[in-house]
Amino acid sequence: MKADFVITKYLFLSCIVSIPMIASALPSDTNQPIRLLADRATYSERTGVTTYSGKVTIEQGTLKIAADNLTVNLDTNNRSIKSAVATGQPATIQQVVTQEKGLAKGQANRIDYNAVSGIVTLTGNAKLTQAGSSFSGNTIRYSLSVGDVEANAGGGQRVELVFPPSDSNSRSGLR
């Protein structure tokens, strides 16, 4: 029993340490133009709210978002993005985190992005994958700047984490 706990603890810690999901996007992405396509767009200068609907796609460098609807809240003083909410069946987001970590992909019924905190929250049938690893649950929160990931289950379901096998042929951790 104690040996099982040690093995489980070792596997969990080694996976968490070796698989940081999202750290920071490629610096060149923010210097790229933003291309947005939608069937309809509306903007309220008074509230700073812009809504897009109908097969919405956004691309900026390696960042790509696809959704049925997107609402963007702008700071009315400097027109910078404060937050955005994408919804769809599912809404998707993907971005190359770094050249070493590769492409991170997320999908959910709702994707909330807080530009101030750098937190992305995937809600409703949420899934996040990167480098062969995946997190699934009802809600997944991750930090674009720090790389922290939190997955929560709901409705009697459980969180599922899948990690690829280690590259080394060594089995020293499984004794």
Q: Can you lay out the helices and strands and say which pair or pack?
A:
Layout: H1 2-18, E1 35-37, E2 40-44, E3 49-60, E4 63-74, E5 81-98, E6 102-114, E7 119-130, E8 133-143, E9 149-152, E10 160-162
Antiparallel strand pairs: 1-3, 2-3, 3-4, 4-5, 5-6, 6-7, 7-8, 8-9, 8-10
Compact summary:
The chain is mainly beta. It has one helix at 2-18, and strands at residues 35-37, 40-44, 49-60, 63-74, 81-98, 102-114, 119-130, 133-143, 149-152, 160-162.
Based on the model shown, name its key terms.
175 residues, mainly beta, ten-stranded antiparallel beta sheet, 10 strands, globular, disordered N terminus
Largest sheet: 10 strands, antiparallel
The coarse silhouette is globular
Helix residue percentage = under 10%
* Extended strand count: 10
Gyration radius over CA: 19 Å
Helix and strand element order: HEEEEEEEEEE
Low-confidence stretches: 1-24, 170-175
Q: What average pLDDT do the residues reach?
A: 78
User: N-to-C terminal Cα separation, in Å?
Assistant: 13 Å
Which structural class should the secondary elements be placed in? mainly beta
Number of helices in the DSSP assignment: 1
Tell me the fraction of residues in β-strands, as a range: over 45%
